[in-house]
Amino acid sequence: MKKTFAFHTYGCQMNVRESEAAARALLDAGYTQAADEASADIVIVNSCSVRAKAEDKALGKLGLLCASKRERPGRVVGVMGCMAQRMGDELFRRLPRLDFAIGTRCAERVAPAVEAALHGEATLALRGLHETPDAPSGHVTDGGFSAFVTILLGCNRRCTYCIVPDVRGDEWSRPAREVLCEVRALAEAGVREVTLLGQSIMNYGLRTPAFDESDPPSPGGYRLPFPRLLEAVAAIPGIERIRFTSGHPSGVTDELIRLYREEPKLCHHLHLPVQSGSTAVLSRMRRGYTREQYLEAVAKLRAAVPDIAVTTDVIVGFPGETEADFEETRTLMGAAGFDNAFIFKYSPRPGTVSATWEDDVSEEEKARRNQILLGDQDVRGAILNQKLVGTTQAVLAEGPSLRNKARWSGRTSSNKIVVFTPPEGLKPGDTVALTITRAAPQTLYAE
Which pTM was predicted? Predict the structure, then answer.
Protein backbone atom coordinates (compact mmCIF):
# COMPACT_ATOMS: atom_id res chain seq x y z
CA MET A 1 0.00 0.00 0.00
CA LYS A 2 1.26 3.47 -0.90
CA LYS A 3 2.32 5.68 1.97
CA THR A 4 0.13 8.72 2.57
CA PHE A 5 1.23 12.24 3.47
CA ALA A 6 -0.18 15.46 4.92
CA PHE A 7 1.19 18.98 5.40
CA HIS A 8 0.54 21.35 8.30
CA THR A 9 1.49 24.85 7.12
CA TYR A 10 2.15 27.92 9.27
CA GLY A 11 2.92 31.44 8.14
CA CYS A 12 2.66 33.31 4.87
CA GLN A 13 1.20 32.57 1.46
CA MET A 14 4.66 31.69 0.21
CA ASN A 15 4.75 28.82 2.70
CA VAL A 16 1.39 27.64 1.34
CA ARG A 17 2.89 27.72 -2.15
CA GLU A 18 5.99 25.80 -1.05
CA SER A 19 3.86 23.14 0.65
CA GLU A 20 2.06 22.75 -2.70
CA ALA A 21 5.38 22.30 -4.49
CA ALA A 22 6.58 19.69 -1.97
CA ALA A 23 3.22 17.89 -2.19
CA ARG A 24 3.51 17.79 -5.97
CA ALA A 25 6.98 16.24 -5.67
CA LEU A 26 5.67 13.57 -3.26
CA LEU A 27 2.79 12.73 -5.61
CA ASP A 28 5.25 12.43 -8.50
CA ALA A 29 7.36 10.10 -6.33
CA GLY A 30 4.40 7.73 -5.86
CA TYR A 31 3.02 8.82 -2.49
CA THR A 32 -0.67 9.70 -2.03
CA GLN A 33 -2.34 12.56 -0.20
CA ALA A 34 -4.01 11.50 3.05
CA ALA A 35 -7.68 12.21 3.71
CA ASP A 36 -6.61 13.95 6.91
CA GLU A 37 -3.57 14.53 9.09
CA ALA A 38 -4.58 11.93 11.71
CA SER A 39 -4.48 9.09 9.19
CA ALA A 40 -1.30 10.18 7.37
CA ASP A 41 1.80 7.98 7.41
CA ILE A 42 3.97 11.05 6.76
CA VAL A 43 3.32 14.46 8.32
CA ILE A 44 5.38 17.51 7.36
CA VAL A 45 5.20 20.82 9.22
CA ASN A 46 6.03 23.86 7.10
CA SER A 47 7.27 26.42 9.62
CA CYS A 48 7.49 30.19 10.05
CA SER A 49 10.03 32.29 11.98
CA VAL A 50 8.66 35.81 11.56
CA ARG A 51 7.42 35.89 15.16
CA ALA A 52 8.32 33.85 18.23
CA LYS A 53 4.68 32.77 18.57
CA ALA A 54 4.78 31.14 15.12
CA GLU A 55 7.85 29.11 16.07
CA ASP A 56 6.28 28.10 19.39
CA LYS A 57 3.21 26.79 17.57
CA ALA A 58 5.32 24.78 15.10
CA LEU A 59 7.49 23.32 17.88
CA GLY A 60 4.42 22.37 19.88
CA LYS A 61 2.86 20.69 16.87
CA LEU A 62 6.06 18.78 16.09
CA GLY A 63 6.29 17.65 19.70
CA LEU A 64 2.80 16.13 19.51
CA LEU A 65 3.53 14.49 16.16
CA CYS A 66 6.81 13.01 17.40
CA ALA A 67 5.04 11.71 20.50
CA SER A 68 2.48 9.98 18.24
CA LYS A 69 5.31 7.78 16.95
CA ARG A 70 5.15 5.78 20.19
CA GLU A 71 1.84 4.29 18.98
CA ARG A 72 2.81 4.53 15.30
CA PRO A 73 6.54 3.73 15.15
CA GLY A 74 6.58 3.70 11.35
CA ARG A 75 5.25 7.24 11.05
CA VAL A 76 7.54 9.85 9.45
CA VAL A 77 7.59 13.36 10.93
CA GLY A 78 9.51 16.18 9.23
CA VAL A 79 9.80 19.95 9.24
CA MET A 80 10.60 22.37 6.44
CA GLY A 81 10.78 26.12 5.98
CA CYS A 82 12.07 29.13 7.89
CA MET A 83 12.30 27.64 11.39
CA ALA A 84 14.23 24.65 10.03
CA GLN A 85 16.63 27.01 8.26
CA ARG A 86 17.14 29.08 11.42
CA MET A 87 17.45 26.29 14.00
CA GLY A 88 19.13 23.57 11.94
CA ASP A 89 20.38 20.59 13.93
CA GLU A 90 19.12 22.14 17.18
CA LEU A 91 15.72 20.75 16.13
CA PHE A 92 17.02 17.20 16.41
CA ARG A 93 18.29 17.88 19.94
CA ARG A 94 14.91 19.27 20.97
CA LEU A 95 12.91 16.64 19.06
CA PRO A 96 14.86 13.34 19.11
CA ARG A 97 12.17 11.51 17.12
CA LEU A 98 12.21 14.05 14.27
CA ASP A 99 13.08 12.41 10.94
CA PHE A 100 14.18 15.35 8.83
CA ALA A 101 14.57 19.14 8.67
CA ILE A 102 14.61 20.88 5.29
CA GLY A 103 15.43 24.59 5.10
CA THR A 104 14.19 27.27 2.74
CA ARG A 105 14.93 27.43 -0.98
CA CYS A 106 15.17 23.63 -1.20
CA ALA A 107 11.64 22.17 -1.08
CA GLU A 108 12.69 19.71 -3.80
CA ARG A 109 14.65 17.81 -1.12
CA VAL A 110 11.52 16.83 0.83
CA ALA A 111 10.74 13.73 -1.26
CA PRO A 112 14.30 12.29 -0.94
CA ALA A 113 14.20 13.06 2.81
CA VAL A 114 10.95 11.09 3.17
CA GLU A 115 12.49 8.16 1.30
CA ALA A 116 15.56 8.26 3.55
CA ALA A 117 13.37 8.39 6.69
CA LEU A 118 11.48 5.30 5.57
CA HIS A 119 14.87 3.56 5.52
CA GLY A 120 15.75 4.82 9.00
CA GLU A 121 18.01 7.70 7.97
CA ALA A 122 17.65 11.27 9.28
CA THR A 123 18.17 14.23 6.95
CA LEU A 124 19.23 17.82 7.55
CA ALA A 125 19.28 19.92 4.37
CA LEU A 126 20.00 23.66 4.50
CA ARG A 127 20.72 25.59 1.34
CA GLY A 128 23.31 28.39 1.31
CA LEU A 129 21.36 31.61 1.21
CA HIS A 130 23.54 33.14 -1.51
CA GLU A 131 22.92 30.18 -3.82
CA THR A 132 20.39 30.34 -6.63
CA PRO A 133 17.25 28.76 -5.19
CA ASP A 134 15.00 26.14 -6.67
CA ALA A 135 11.76 27.98 -7.39
CA PRO A 136 8.56 26.14 -6.46
CA SER A 137 7.15 24.24 -9.41
CA GLY A 138 4.06 22.12 -9.87
CA HIS A 139 0.69 22.79 -8.24
CA VAL A 140 -1.83 20.59 -6.51
CA THR A 141 -4.84 22.54 -7.77
CA ASP A 142 -7.70 20.04 -7.13
CA GLY A 143 -9.60 21.88 -9.84
CA GLY A 144 -9.30 25.12 -7.86
CA PHE A 145 -9.93 28.51 -9.45
CA SER A 146 -7.21 30.44 -7.56
CA ALA A 147 -3.46 29.84 -7.21
CA PHE A 148 -0.31 31.36 -5.76
CA VAL A 149 2.70 31.88 -8.04
CA THR A 150 6.08 32.76 -6.53
CA ILE A 151 8.00 35.27 -8.65
CA LEU A 152 10.66 36.52 -6.20
CA LEU A 153 12.47 34.81 -3.35
CA GLY A 154 14.49 36.37 -0.55
CA CYS A 155 14.85 39.98 0.57
CA ASN A 156 17.72 42.48 0.64
CA ARG A 157 16.07 45.23 2.70
CA ARG A 158 17.48 44.21 6.10
CA CYS A 159 14.86 45.83 8.33
CA THR A 160 16.28 45.75 11.85
CA TYR A 161 13.49 43.58 13.30
CA CYS A 162 13.15 41.10 10.45
CA ILE A 163 14.65 37.63 10.24
CA VAL A 164 13.47 36.98 6.66
CA PRO A 165 16.81 37.80 4.95
CA ASP A 166 18.58 35.37 7.30
CA VAL A 167 16.22 32.49 6.58
CA ARG A 168 15.10 33.30 3.01
CA GLY A 169 18.38 34.66 1.62
CA ASP A 170 19.20 37.16 -1.09
CA GLU A 171 16.59 38.45 -3.53
CA TRP A 172 16.26 36.35 -6.65
CA SER A 173 13.72 36.91 -9.41
CA ARG A 174 12.42 34.02 -11.45
CA PRO A 175 12.78 34.52 -15.22
CA ALA A 176 9.63 36.04 -16.68
CA ARG A 177 9.32 33.25 -19.26
CA GLU A 178 9.23 30.65 -16.48
CA VAL A 179 6.58 32.58 -14.52
CA LEU A 180 4.40 33.06 -17.61
CA CYS A 181 4.69 29.39 -18.54
CA GLU A 182 3.46 28.45 -15.05
CA VAL A 183 0.53 30.89 -15.22
CA ARG A 184 -0.49 29.60 -18.68
CA ALA A 185 -0.53 26.04 -17.35
CA LEU A 186 -2.68 27.14 -14.41
CA ALA A 187 -5.11 28.95 -16.72
CA GLU A 188 -5.41 25.82 -18.87
CA ALA A 189 -6.22 23.86 -15.68
CA GLY A 190 -9.10 26.23 -14.89
CA VAL A 191 -7.43 28.76 -12.59
CA ARG A 192 -9.02 32.20 -12.96
CA GLU A 193 -7.21 34.21 -10.26
CA VAL A 194 -3.48 34.28 -9.57
CA THR A 195 -1.69 35.90 -6.65
CA LEU A 196 1.97 36.68 -7.36
CA LEU A 197 4.22 36.28 -4.33
CA GLY A 198 7.49 37.77 -3.17
CA GLN A 199 8.90 39.04 0.11
CA SER A 200 9.79 42.31 -1.59
CA ILE A 201 7.76 41.79 -4.74
CA MET A 202 8.03 45.28 -6.22
CA ASN A 203 11.80 44.70 -6.55
CA TYR A 204 11.07 41.99 -9.11
CA GLY A 205 13.75 42.04 -11.80
CA LEU A 206 15.79 44.85 -10.22
CA ARG A 207 18.50 42.73 -8.51
CA THR A 208 18.61 39.75 -10.84
CA PRO A 209 17.44 40.02 -14.47
CA ALA A 210 13.94 38.73 -15.20
CA PHE A 211 13.68 39.67 -18.89
CA ASP A 212 16.32 39.31 -21.59
CA GLU A 213 16.80 40.83 -25.04
CA SER A 214 14.92 38.01 -26.77
CA ASP A 215 11.75 38.68 -24.76
CA PRO A 216 9.14 40.69 -26.70
CA PRO A 217 8.79 44.35 -25.73
CA SER A 218 5.90 45.54 -23.58
CA PRO A 219 2.86 46.44 -25.72
CA GLY A 220 2.00 49.14 -23.17
CA GLY A 221 5.52 50.56 -23.15
CA TYR A 222 6.32 49.46 -19.58
CA ARG A 223 10.03 49.51 -18.82
CA LEU A 224 10.14 48.51 -15.14
CA PRO A 225 10.22 44.71 -14.77
CA PHE A 226 7.34 44.35 -12.30
CA PRO A 227 4.64 46.30 -14.22
CA ARG A 228 5.90 44.62 -17.39
CA LEU A 229 5.38 41.17 -15.86
CA LEU A 230 1.90 42.11 -14.57
CA GLU A 231 0.97 43.25 -18.07
CA ALA A 232 2.18 39.95 -19.55
CA VAL A 233 0.23 37.89 -16.98
CA ALA A 234 -2.91 39.90 -17.76
CA ALA A 235 -2.56 38.98 -21.44
CA ILE A 236 -2.88 35.24 -20.71
CA PRO A 237 -6.31 33.94 -21.80
CA GLY A 238 -8.42 32.60 -18.94
CA ILE A 239 -6.85 34.73 -16.21
CA GLU A 240 -9.50 37.10 -14.89
CA ARG A 241 -7.93 38.53 -11.74
CA ILE A 242 -4.36 39.30 -10.68
CA ARG A 243 -3.24 40.07 -7.14
CA PHE A 244 0.21 40.41 -5.60
CA THR A 245 1.80 40.79 -2.17
CA SER A 246 3.57 42.39 -0.38
CA GLY A 247 4.24 45.97 -1.44
CA HIS A 248 6.64 48.74 -0.42
CA PRO A 249 6.11 52.50 -0.89
CA SER A 250 9.21 52.73 -3.10
CA GLY A 251 7.47 50.45 -5.59
CA VAL A 252 4.47 52.74 -6.05
CA THR A 253 5.85 54.11 -9.32
CA ASP A 254 4.12 56.04 -12.08
CA GLU A 255 4.20 52.89 -14.22
CA LEU A 256 2.51 50.76 -11.56
CA ILE A 257 -0.14 53.43 -10.99
CA ARG A 258 -0.80 53.62 -14.74
CA LEU A 259 -1.23 49.85 -14.87
CA TYR A 260 -3.71 49.95 -11.98
CA ARG A 261 -5.67 52.60 -13.90
CA GLU A 262 -5.57 50.87 -17.30
CA GLU A 263 -5.56 47.10 -16.67
CA PRO A 264 -8.98 45.78 -15.56
CA LYS A 265 -7.58 42.40 -14.51
CA LEU A 266 -5.31 43.95 -11.87
CA CYS A 267 -7.35 43.89 -8.67
CA HIS A 268 -7.93 47.22 -6.95
CA HIS A 269 -6.20 46.21 -3.73
CA LEU A 270 -2.68 46.78 -2.46
CA HIS A 271 -1.21 45.38 0.74
CA LEU A 272 1.33 48.03 1.72
CA PRO A 273 2.95 47.37 5.14
CA VAL A 274 3.74 50.56 7.04
CA GLN A 275 4.84 49.08 10.43
CA SER A 276 4.87 52.50 12.16
CA GLY A 277 3.58 56.02 11.62
CA SER A 278 6.56 57.62 13.33
CA THR A 279 9.48 58.67 11.12
CA ALA A 280 11.85 58.19 14.07
CA VAL A 281 10.68 54.60 14.59
CA LEU A 282 10.71 53.92 10.83
CA SER A 283 14.33 55.05 10.77
CA ARG A 284 15.26 52.67 13.61
CA MET A 285 13.36 49.91 11.80
CA ARG A 286 15.41 50.75 8.66
CA ARG A 287 12.24 50.75 6.53
CA GLY A 288 13.62 53.15 3.90
CA TYR A 289 10.86 55.78 3.93
CA THR A 290 9.42 58.50 6.14
CA ARG A 291 5.86 58.96 7.36
CA GLU A 292 5.35 61.64 4.70
CA GLN A 293 6.70 59.47 1.87
CA TYR A 294 4.37 56.63 2.84
CA LEU A 295 1.31 58.87 2.90
CA GLU A 296 2.37 60.39 -0.44
CA ALA A 297 2.44 56.91 -2.02
CA VAL A 298 -1.07 56.18 -0.72
CA ALA A 299 -2.34 59.57 -1.93
CA LYS A 300 -0.94 58.97 -5.44
CA LEU A 301 -2.68 55.59 -5.58
CA ARG A 302 -6.03 56.97 -4.42
CA ALA A 303 -5.85 59.91 -6.82
CA ALA A 304 -5.44 57.55 -9.77
CA VAL A 305 -7.68 54.71 -8.53
CA PRO A 306 -10.29 56.16 -6.14
CA ASP A 307 -11.81 52.77 -5.24
CA ILE A 308 -8.51 51.05 -4.42
CA ALA A 309 -8.42 49.28 -1.06
CA VAL A 310 -5.18 49.66 0.89
CA THR A 311 -4.35 47.25 3.70
CA THR A 312 -1.29 47.22 5.93
CA ASP A 313 0.84 45.64 8.68
CA VAL A 314 1.70 47.49 11.89
CA ILE A 315 4.08 46.62 14.75
CA VAL A 316 3.36 48.07 18.19
CA GLY A 317 5.90 48.24 21.01
CA PHE A 318 9.06 48.41 18.88
CA PRO A 319 12.10 49.23 21.06
CA GLY A 320 12.06 52.91 21.94
CA GLU A 321 8.48 53.50 20.74
CA THR A 322 7.14 56.31 22.91
CA GLU A 323 3.52 57.25 23.49
CA ALA A 324 4.05 60.10 21.01
CA ASP A 325 5.38 57.64 18.41
CA PHE A 326 2.35 55.45 18.97
CA GLU A 327 -0.02 58.40 18.52
CA GLU A 328 1.72 59.17 15.21
CA THR A 329 0.89 55.62 14.12
CA ARG A 330 -2.76 56.17 15.07
CA THR A 331 -2.97 59.41 13.10
CA LEU A 332 -1.22 57.91 10.07
CA MET A 333 -3.67 55.03 10.00
CA GLY A 334 -6.54 57.49 10.05
CA ALA A 335 -4.97 59.62 7.32
CA ALA A 336 -4.26 56.59 5.10
CA GLY A 337 -7.80 55.28 5.59
CA PHE A 338 -6.79 51.63 5.64
CA ASP A 339 -9.47 49.13 4.67
CA ASN A 340 -7.87 46.57 6.97
CA ALA A 341 -4.79 46.30 9.17
CA PHE A 342 -2.88 43.38 10.65
CA ILE A 343 -1.46 44.55 13.96
CA PHE A 344 1.30 42.70 15.78
CA LYS A 345 3.05 43.10 19.11
CA TYR A 346 6.81 43.36 18.68
CA SER A 347 8.81 40.28 19.59
CA PRO A 348 12.62 40.18 19.20
CA ARG A 349 13.95 37.59 16.75
CA PRO A 350 17.37 36.01 17.38
CA GLY A 351 20.08 37.36 15.11
CA THR A 352 18.32 40.57 14.13
CA VAL A 353 19.69 44.01 14.94
CA SER A 354 16.75 45.03 17.14
CA ALA A 355 17.17 41.88 19.25
CA THR A 356 20.34 43.47 20.67
CA TRP A 357 18.35 46.49 21.89
CA GLU A 358 16.41 46.74 25.11
CA ASP A 359 12.83 45.53 24.64
CA ASP A 360 11.66 48.49 26.70
CA VAL A 361 7.92 48.52 26.03
CA SER A 362 6.14 46.23 28.50
CA GLU A 363 3.91 43.41 27.33
CA GLU A 364 0.96 45.12 29.02
CA GLU A 365 1.61 48.33 27.11
CA LYS A 366 2.04 46.43 23.83
CA ALA A 367 -1.32 44.76 24.44
CA ARG A 368 -2.95 48.12 25.22
CA ARG A 369 -1.63 49.73 22.04
CA ASN A 370 -2.62 46.68 20.03
CA GLN A 371 -6.21 46.84 21.28
CA ILE A 372 -6.48 50.57 20.61
CA LEU A 373 -5.41 50.15 16.99
CA LEU A 374 -7.72 47.17 16.51
CA GLY A 375 -10.61 49.24 17.87
CA ASP A 376 -9.75 52.16 15.61
CA GLN A 377 -9.62 49.83 12.61
CA ASP A 378 -13.01 48.31 13.42
CA VAL A 379 -14.56 51.79 13.41
CA ARG A 380 -12.73 52.73 10.21
CA GLY A 381 -13.64 49.46 8.48
CA ALA A 382 -17.30 49.82 9.42
CA ILE A 383 -17.45 53.34 7.97
CA LEU A 384 -15.69 52.36 4.73
CA ASN A 385 -17.82 49.24 4.24
CA GLN A 386 -21.06 51.08 5.01
CA LYS A 387 -20.39 53.27 1.97
CA LEU A 388 -20.68 50.15 -0.20
CA VAL A 389 -24.22 49.30 0.95
CA GLY A 390 -26.54 49.62 -2.03
CA THR A 391 -23.77 49.26 -4.61
CA THR A 392 -23.41 46.32 -6.97
CA GLN A 393 -20.11 44.46 -6.73
CA ALA A 394 -18.53 41.79 -8.93
CA VAL A 395 -17.71 38.95 -6.53
CA LEU A 396 -15.56 35.92 -7.31
CA ALA A 397 -17.39 33.08 -5.56
CA GLU A 398 -15.18 30.90 -3.34
CA GLY A 399 -17.73 28.39 -1.97
CA PRO A 400 -19.70 27.73 1.23
CA SER A 401 -19.07 30.10 4.13
CA LEU A 402 -17.17 28.61 7.07
CA ARG A 403 -19.87 29.62 9.56
CA ASN A 404 -23.01 28.85 7.54
CA LYS A 405 -22.89 26.27 4.76
CA ALA A 406 -26.19 27.56 3.34
CA ARG A 407 -24.43 30.83 2.55
CA TRP A 408 -21.40 31.34 0.32
CA SER A 409 -18.50 33.75 0.50
CA GLY A 410 -16.41 35.44 -2.13
CA ARG A 411 -14.22 38.48 -2.69
CA THR A 412 -14.49 41.70 -4.60
CA SER A 413 -11.64 43.09 -6.68
CA SER A 414 -10.74 45.20 -3.63
CA ASN A 415 -10.44 42.00 -1.55
CA LYS A 416 -13.57 42.63 0.52
CA ILE A 417 -15.18 39.44 1.85
CA VAL A 418 -18.83 39.13 0.80
CA VAL A 419 -21.27 36.60 2.30
CA PHE A 420 -24.36 35.84 0.20
CA THR A 421 -27.05 33.29 -0.67
CA PRO A 422 -25.82 31.55 -3.85
CA PRO A 423 -28.00 31.58 -6.96
CA GLU A 424 -28.81 28.17 -8.41
CA GLY A 425 -26.02 26.63 -10.46
CA LEU A 426 -23.26 28.85 -9.09
CA LYS A 427 -19.81 27.21 -9.00
CA PRO A 428 -16.63 28.21 -7.14
CA GLY A 429 -14.66 30.47 -9.45
CA ASP A 430 -17.73 32.04 -11.06
CA THR A 431 -18.07 35.80 -10.94
CA VAL A 432 -21.48 37.04 -9.79
CA ALA A 433 -22.91 40.57 -9.54
CA LEU A 434 -24.26 41.16 -6.03
CA THR A 435 -26.00 44.06 -4.35
CA ILE A 436 -24.51 44.85 -0.94
CA THR A 437 -27.29 44.98 1.68
CA ARG A 438 -25.39 45.15 4.97
CA ALA A 439 -21.87 45.90 6.19
CA ALA A 440 -19.69 44.93 9.15
CA PRO A 441 -16.11 46.08 9.85
CA GLN A 442 -14.55 43.09 8.09
CA THR A 443 -17.41 41.63 6.03
CA LEU A 444 -20.05 42.64 3.49
CA TYR A 445 -23.40 40.87 3.10
CA ALA A 446 -25.29 40.69 -0.18
CA GLU A 447 -28.17 39.25 -2.13
Answer: 0.93
